[in-house]
Amino acid sequence: MSLLTPSGPIHAPNIAPKTPAEAYARYLKRSIFEGHWRCGSPLSEAALLEKLLKKHYRTQLRADLDRLPPERGRRSADEFSRRPLREALTILSGRRLIERSSGGSARPRRLTSKDREQIFDARRMIEPNRAKKAAFACRSSPIARQRMEEVWSCLDFALDGPGGAGSYIEVDIAFHTEIARLSSEVLALLVEITLEQTVVGGRRASEVTTYLRQQHQTKDRGAGIHAEHQAIYQAIVDGDEARAEAEMERHLDAAEDQNKEVAFLLDL
Question: Which pTM value belongs to this model?
Answer without folding.
Answer: 0.79
